[in-house]
Amino acid sequence: MKKITFTALTVPLTYVLIMLLCSLKTYAQEKTLTLSGVVKDANGPLAGVNVWQTDTENGTQTNELGFYTIQIPLNTQVTFDYLGYKPQTFTVKTSTLNVTLVADENTLDELVINAGYYTVKDKERTGSISKITAKEIGQQPVANPLAAMQGRMAGVNITQNSGVPGGGFDIQIRGRNSLRTEGNAPLYIVDGVPYASQSISDNGISSFVMPFGNVSPLNSINPNDIESIEVLKDADATAIYGSRGSNGVVLITTKRGNSDKTTFSFQSTTSVSTVAKYMDLMNTEAYLKMRKDAYANDGIIDLPADAYDVNGTWDENKYTNWQKKFLGGKAVSQSTQFSIGGGSGKTNYLINAGHRKDETVFPGDYGYKRTNFGLNVNHQSKDDRFSIRVSILKSFQKNNLMATDFSNKIFLSPNAPDLYDADGNLNWENNTFENPLANLYAEYRFKSNDSNGQLGMDYKLTDQFTFRLNTGFNEASVDEWRTAPSKMYNPGYGIGSDSSILSYSTSKRSSWIVEPQLHWELNLHKAKINFLIGTTFEERKAQSMRLDAGGFTTDDFIYNLANATIVDIIRDTESRYRYAAIYGRFNFIYNDKYIVNLTGRRDGSSRFGPGKKWGNFGAVGAAWLFSRENVFDKSSWLSFGKLRASYGITGSDLIGDYQYLDNMGISRYQYDGIIGIEPIRLFNPDFSWESNKKLETALELEFLRGRLSTSIAWYRNRSSNQLVGIPLPGTTGFTSVQANLQATVENTGWEFTLNSLNVSQTNFRWTTDINVSIPKNKLIAFPNLEESTYKNQYVIGESIHMRKLFNYVGINNETGLYEFEDVNDDGIIDANDRTAIGNVGPKYIAGFQNSFTYKSWSISFLWQFVSQKVNSPDYYSGYLGMAENRTDRSIDYFTPDNKDAKYQIPTSGKNTLAIQANQNFKNSTGVITDGSYIRLKSLQLQYKVGGDWLKNKSLNVYAQANNLITITKYWGLDPESMGGYVPNMRTIAFGFNFQF
Fold first, then answer.
1. How far is CA 854 from the centre of its chain?
2. Whether residue 92 is found in the same domain as residue 146
3. Could you read off the pLDDT of 276-335 as tens digits, one per residue?
4. Nearest Cα to 745, choosing from 171, 361, 335, 184?
5. For residues 66 and 561, what is the distance between their CA atoms, to the nearest angstrom?
6. Judgement on whether residues 174 and 246 belong to the same structural domain of the protein
7. What is the rounded distance in angstroms from the CA atom of residue 434 to the CA atom of residue 442?
8. Which domain holds residue 192?
9. CA gap 381, 559 in Å, rounded
10. Nearest 5 degrees, angle CA 612-CA 748-CA 869?
11. What are the backbone angles phi and psi of residue 490, rounded to the nearest 5°?
12. What is the spatial distance between Cα 147 and Cα 158, in angstroms, rounded to a whole number?
């Protein structure tokens, strides 16, 4: 063995020593430390601020609390950068560095808007897109995203149908385009995946408790999970969606995590909802006088034995305010949400779960429950060439309500008996009283299971070319029940469980979508070119079954079909819809101020016959950023100015599946004991796409370095080739045949927005946002209208919201009955005299929002303005004199001493002329009234709790209100919701949000 001497070790030991000394010297010069701190602006912490070591790839982002931490060498520079703020660079001297960023008005054009298939800088967009963010959504204690949008977007009119939890909404983006109600729904896109816009309910089961049986499909989405909502309105923005964008597009983007330390968030809100306003009804004295006058007018001296309210059977000195009995409850709601977000490097995630429970103002233990789960994961490769994003939303809903809305029960006779007897049982008052509370035994139940998922991938082929793949799925299953058990009837009738009825409906919907795309970006000396081409493959399946069951052996098992002796299958259907498209976009920007945007799409739909399946749609948009011309370089007042215009054609295939085929269905009737089939639809292969031609021009301005901005837009949409059912004579055996009607509906209007930063100081900030829409709708063409069955429904030159009415002229001084104009002087009041126009559409809608921030306090409120004509409460009432209470206005009825009255003579029902006059009155101009209102739609007061114990944590406590104040001349319960149903609620909420 060779001996190792000390001399032999000298060289390597010396080398190691020199390297150690060099390392120590380098460490002394480049000592690293952990830098941390909080980044905020005048309003508080900022999440997502980029923090990195200058001129390196060493970086991170602030979390939801504005906190960051980064390993960085001492005496080097660190940069803080955030969109819309001036970047700041500091030399690191200590381990703690707190930074306050200042808004930079000159970078506002870098704000990015989601346009669906692509993103665009806000100031470089050529289309009309409105947006609200999580900040505005979170200021409202609402359960549905559509409720959060009310009053906040120009050109978007949203109406809540009733105050029943889990109910529906009506949304119109720049008016109503189709003659069919179901043909006006917009396209919903949730995280890139189409979401069904049709109601998910069987209206034959739910319409007794919800207007039109409308259950909004967006009820399954928790508003607190949403990051932003964009609404695409004009042709330039919607044409790339082709036939699906005819009525506008609503893009919903859910929240995502940040690449930083793990952050936990817990939010809880408790709210109480009540009816905001009661009607002024007759007291007992006035009511009984009306009833007795009704019998006297009919010449009846001896009151009938069943006139219990006036013949002495019931106490004539008793008074009950039935509004408070049936609608006077307090609906308590509880919403709780928990989320975990974070990530590391180029991967981030967000996991959330939420639960909401809403009670009702009705008697009984009823209410709505929803449970949500969400997962959102984003990852980007180290070289930034590949990225992947995954989002999954899961929702479970349960709604347990009475089968019939109690709102009509508020008109009970004010001297009707008590609801319960002395023993606490339902009071039938010796079989003289139909106790409304017995309806509590009849139930409506709703249960749904919804899933929505998206998988998106981007791969940058070169610096200019990017391949993108977007895939997704949506599944929904719904079960509904409506019961009518025998115990809901007066026991004196002897009705048994063999007369009980159960209606049951079950449906399933599923869809998938695959959209490969290729994006090309080219930056030349003065020109920028963006090109997009893609395809869509989509399929939807639907199954539905409805049955009625009866003859139960006992009501205790009414939900068990095995307990029924009769089961009648009303419907059992299955359908499939397939859709394919190719689309493209070409965007050209020259010298950062001249922009042209071309979009086009060719759609194929299985809903049309051979030769009609494909439709072509497209648009052109242009913008001139004139403020970037040299003449405005030194302008001290104009910060930004843009003129834009667009024109294009979109379409619609919202007509249902298999409508062009000669359909056969299973007959509900038997012949010789055999169930056969029967024709249910006529063959028409010639009907095809509806067409909507959209034109818009707009001016956008900013002044005083962005502190004041405004926009003015004018639009005109013309929808033609209407898909409707053309009525047929009864002798054909069919009521209608699906076809294209050459009618044209025009929507025009003006939209104004104004945003101002009134005050911006270190401790105080005040902003104002105003939007105003002035829509106008009219039917401009309808060939052979006077010869069609639509002649009593529409008038050329008038709105399709209109009603053809009798012209009410007053009360006849001789008969005391309502009188109407006899237009053709034939001495008869009939349909030919219904020539007056009653337009019940909105004249203008507006929103006025203010936000104030002072130190740790903030307050924001939104006033909503709506000018409209609506049907008065008289439209929903019976004839005057029946055993039904009325508004106290009805006290002013005709008598020989009161010939200038508002209402005709009361009748007990024997005066057929009075009954007919009342029916004509409900179809006359006499029931059209002013339904305009000003409403404090939203109010939030928030305080950010401070203190040393909250370091790196955040605690916000808040009070919120919805529909707090309503100023209106309307004398019904609510000028927004429909009569006959519970009105929209006034809600006051308290809660907190704790992040750590």
1. 32
2. no
3. 999 999 999 999 999 999 999 999 999 999 999 999 999 999 999 999 999 999 999 999
4. 184
5. 58
6. yes
7. 15
8. 108-254
9. 54
10. 115
11. -60, 125
12. 8
